Amino acid sequence: MQHLAGIIAILAVFSIPLVAIVGSFYLKLQKLKISQNGDGDTVKDLRQQVGHLMAENDEVKDRLKNLEHILSDESRRINIDYEKEQIKVDQQNKFEL
To answer: Which residues cross the membrane (predicted)?
Structure first.
């Protein structure tokens, strides 16, 4: 259950910038539609912006895959019960000195 919550948290963190990027692109697109006077350059600019956004989206997807791999790697997990026991032992040893 904790594993699922971690993945959901990561997805939420990375979905906010993606929504912001897509939202800003949509606003720019609407502004260009309003101000467009049959200009061919705006279509070229839009295609270039879409290309940049798609590349950035692919980069974010790759980073998300890497984070999911890191979180799901069993060898990197911390055994909470073991760590709690070690803290107790350390505290007991500290007072015995």
So the answer is: 6-27
